[in-house]
Amino acid sequence: MTPTTDDMSIISLVLNASLVVQLVMGLLMVLSLLSWWHIFSKFFTVKHATSQSADFEDRFWGGSDLNGLYDQTRRNHAIGMEKIFIAGFTEFQKLRQRGGMELSDVMDGSRRAMRASSQRELDYLDKHTSFLASVGSVSPYIGLFGTVWGIMHAFTGLANVGQATLATVAPGIAESLVATAIGLFAAIPATVAYNRFAHDVDALASRFDTFIEEFSNILQRQAAK
Questions:
Q1: Which residues are CB-neighbours of 145 under 8 A, at least 6 positions away?
Q2: Burial label, 205 (beta-carbon count in 10 A; 0-12, 13-18, 19+)
């Protein structure tokens, strides 16, 4: 059933669209809802990791004793840079207690532990961002498919009409264009969010790398005493 020119609301266009176009719209709405869920979830996750890392850096460079900071951090719910600190200091203490190890071996082990912890944290922060990238790149094409199918369906229906007018063609074309609009509605926020999160995670990765090098130098000076 095609809506008349007197009833061209979005809801009417969606309800009266062909089955294939409705399926396309439904798929796009599901992708949009999932992407918004991941956007909000990732926003708070990355924001929390950034805030915790900044707070930990203030405590770390505030002259705190490493052993005291280590005990305090282990009692808390560590995240981001805190986990890197815990991993590096734990490995450093473990290797020093073995005895007979060269300083370079101790430092290499500590640095590897921090690198592994950093990668796990970055993998966690980067989780689901590939989904946002996929939604941003694929949704317009899915919407375009629905539009093309809807226009084909509209023009096919004209074969049974004696005289084709704009009033006859417009509703069918309008309902098919809604699929493209929904596709863009799903793609634009997902693309913007993906670019923002990718930038924030890269910034955290750079801070993690800097901290690993600086903390390694501190551990090396402490071990050399």
A1: 24, 179
A2: middle
Non-local CB neighbours of 149 within 8 Å, separated by 6+ positions: 18, 20, 21, 24, 176
pLDDT tens-place string over residues 73-107: 887 777 888 999 999 989 988 888 876 678 788 88
182 within domain boundaries: yes
Q: Scanning the structure block, which residue is given the tokens 């600086």?
A: 214
Hey, how many other C-beta atoms are within 10 angstroms of the C-beta on 1?
A: 9
Integer Cα distance of 73 and 208 in angstroms: 17
pLDDT band of 151, cuts 50, 70, 90:
confident
pLDDT single digits (tens) 169-182: 666 677 778 888 88
CA 161 to centroid of chain Cα atoms: 49
Evaluate whether residue 4 is within a structural domain: no
Is residue 2 one of the residues assigned to a domain?
A: no
Per the listing, tokens 């693309």 go with: 191
> Chain centroid to CA 150: how far?
32
Decide if pLDDT at 5 tops 90. Answer: no
CA distance 96 to 108: 12
Decide if 79 is inside a domain: yes
Count of domains for the chain:
1
Query: So what's the pLDDT on residue 98?
Result: 78
Closest CA to 7 of 151, 175, 154, 156: 175
The structure's pTM equals 0.80
Domain extent, residue 127, equals 10-224
Q: Residue 192 corresponds to which tokens in the numbers above? A: 């913007």
